[in-house]
Design brief:
Blueprint lengths: L4 E5 L4 H16 L3 E8 L7 H7 L1 H28 L6 E6 L2 H12 L3 E5 L10 H12 L3 E5 L14 E4 L4 H17 L2 E8 L16 H25 L3 E9 L2 H11 L4 E5 L9 H12 L4 E4 L2 H7 L1
Parallel strand pairs: 1-2, 1-4, 2-3, 4-5, 6-7, 6-9, 7-8, 9-10
Antiparallel strand pairs: 5-10
Helix pairs in contact: 2-3, 4-5, 5-9, 8-9
């Protein structure tokens, strides 16, 4: 995955500043090119479609004004990013729907990673934790790192503990590769987790099937634990620092969030889709982890598959 081209979406908010620190850290440690985008809004009493119909000249004036404001604010933010110790390879100012602009620009410049703050109080203020971040995660052709607002925690920097959720799927393998690269480059401890759901092992064919199911479940747990330990050893051999496995029981999203808090993870890494215990991470599981984890969440997408779907 790395080195790659990183696109940082910023708006000057506190969350965007946290995202900027992480993007700068990743760019420097992983020798990745950093691009920055600021998406401005058009101040208007009407929604854009109404404005173009009811008063097109006014709408055009407001659009040009918003473009100028976006460029001014972007220059200020670029100065702060350079003070953090990073060169900026590309500067992009735009006006319109933040999610659509971010996704389109990421594809245009061939970004391998998009970094966004979870909430914004400027141009990205439209609940990035809601529709915008969800839209970017779901529609970007590449991986997305979401840095959400969390109460008082400073777990937004590298090095720190990385929690990787795995389930044996191709997407989880890609997530593992990204986590290993970040762990090795940043010197971050790598923790692996696999979530087992006990209800999947409960028989549903009648009382006679219950005999011995608990013993079977214990055998399944032992097998999962052995597999997880083997994956940890493999990743440590590939350059990850102090890889450790954690077998957890329960709903994957809740288990991941709980364990991330338990080990004080500085970054959670998940695949965009899972076919085992993680089940469709692009849907409810990844959304839930992004919304509830008290640290940044990297959703790793199979870029080649995404390109074939276009």
């Amino acid at each position: 995955m790395f080195p790659t081209r990183i696109l940082l979406a910023t708006d000057g908010s506190r969350e965007a500043n946290r995202a900027a620190r992480l993007a700068v850290g990743l760019s420097n440690k992983l020798d990745s090119e950093l691009h920055v985008v600021h998406v401005g809004e058009i101040p208007d009493a009407y929604v854009p479609a109404e404005s173009e119909i009811l008063d097109p000249e006014f709408y055009e004036r407001m659009r040009k004004y918003a473009e100028r404001e976006a460029k001014v604010k972007l220059e200020e933010e670029i100065g702060e990013i350079r003070e953090m110790g990073s060169e900026v390879a590309g500067v992009h100012a735009g006006v319109g729907r933040p999610d659509a602009k971010i996704v389109r620009l990421a594809e245009e410049i061939g970004a391998g990673l998009v970094v966004v703050g979870s909430r914004g109080f400027g141009p990205l203020r439209r609940a990035l934790m809601g529709s915008v971040s969800t839209s970017v995660v779901r529609h970007a052709h590449c991986s997305v790192l979401v840095v959400r607002e969390y109460g008082g925690s400073k777990r937004d920097h590298l090095p720190g503990r990385i929690l990787l959720a795995i389930d044996g799927s191709r997407e989880a393998q890609l997530a593992a590769r990204a986590a290993v690269e970040i762990s090795g480059a940043a010197g971050s401890e790598l923790h692996l987790t696999y979530a087992m759901q006990a209800e999947r092992y409960v028989p549903h064919l009648g009382p006679e099937m219950w005999e011995g199911w608990q013993a079977g479940f214990e055998r399944a747990k032992q097998h999962a634990r052995s597999w997880l330990e083997g994956q940890a050893e493999l990743m440590q051999g590939e350059g990850a620092k102090a890889a450790e496995g954690h077998l957890v029981l329960g709903r994957p999203d809740a288990a991941i969030v709980w364990l991330a808090d338990e080990i004080e993870a500085g970054l959670v890494v998940v695949g965009s889709r899972g076919h085992g215990g993680m089940r469709a991470l692009i849907g409810s599981v990844s959304d839930s982890v992004v919304h509830h984890a008290d640290c940044p969440v990297l959703v790793v997408r199979d870029q080649e598959h995404a390109e074939r779907q276009i």
